[in-house]
Write a structure and sequence with these properties.
The protein is α+β, with helices and mostly antiparallel strands. It contains eight helices and eleven strands. The strands form four sheets. Strands 2-1-5-4-3 form a five-stranded antiparallel beta sheet, sandwiched between helices. Strands 6-9 form a two-stranded antiparallel sheet. Strands 7-8 form a two-stranded antiparallel sheet. The chain starts with a helix and ends with a strand. Mean pLDDT is 77; it is low at 239-251.
Length: 257
């Protein structure tokens, strides 16, 4: 599977394509019936081998409690006889009976953020195999990190190119907020220009989505925008900001450009 993993970075595949290749390689190299990857990011989801794709939502509900335990403890969960566990009956509805399974932690950027599941049609002594499989999962996570970094750099390059070809300052500002919204999956991005000559914020803000433009009021002296000028960035939560509560935003950051 090593060549499959490193080759994915060289070809700059998308993160989803990489995970699909990993699942195929995992089944091939371990003799498993199927495999799946649970990711705990902005929205929990399960990616499975193609034969189980239609059952992913059902499997997610069944496997989530185990995934959460693995993510909290950072240790594998071994099921040498799934028939004696709550997940066994549900797995049997998806495919031919699964006799054994193992859930392996995936550590990304320093924290456990996912789980690699491997399902076997026959009984396996997974307690004995766990160390080797955990080493494999560690390799998968390490290379997946690389894919995410390459994909992220490509996104930033595209954003930079989009901004750099703008022909006037207003278009530059518009593209900055739209690209920031896309890159950071933000619900709202606001750019408020600051005039150094007059030491004042420009009254005309730039927002993405644009329909929020009329809702943005001029920055107050000593407010979040002013503080961001002095400290590079300021973090705002709904608990500490009436405006955040009023607009249903739970978290925001003001960053000096």
């Amino acid at each position: 599977a090593t060549n499959v993993l490193t080759g994915s970075i060289e070809q700059e595949v998308s993160p989803t394509e990489f995970l699909e290749r990993i699942l195929q390689a995992t089944v091939l190299n371990t003799g498993a019936r199927a495999a799946a990857i649970f990711l705990s990011d902005d929205s929990e989801h399960l990616i499975t081998t193609s034969t189980w794709a239609s059952a992913a939502p059902t499997l997610l509900a069944v496997l989530s409690p185990v995934c959460e335990e693995v993510i909290v403890t950072g240790r594998p969960s071994v099921f040498e006889n799934t028939g004696q566990t709550p997940i066994g009956p549900e797995l049997s509805k998806v495919d031919a009976p699964v006799q054994s399974a193992i859930a392996l932690p995936l550590t990304l950027f320093g924290s456990v953020s996912g789980v690699l599941w491997i399902f076997y049609a026959n009984r396996r002594r997974l307690a004995v195999e766990a160390r080797a499989l955990l080493s494999y999962a560690t390799q998968v996570a390490s290379v997946y990190e690389g894919v995410l970094r390459v994909h992220g750099m490509s996104d930033f390059q595209r954003a930079s190119a989009s901004i750099s070809v703008a022909t006037d300052l207003s278009t530059v500002y518009d593209r900055i907020v739209s690209e920031c919204s896309r890159l950071f999956r933000a619900d709202l991005c606001v750019l408020i220009p600051y005039d150094n000559a007059s030491s004042k914020f420009v009254e005309q803000p730039y927002t993405f989505p644009k329909e929020y433009k009329q809702l943005i009021t001029a920055p107050k002296t000593g407010g979040v925008s002013s503080r961001a000028l002095l400290s590079d960035y300021v973090t705002v939560t709904a608990a500490s900001s009436a405006s955040a509560r009023d607009n249903d935003f739970q978290f925001a950051q003001a960053v000096r450009l």
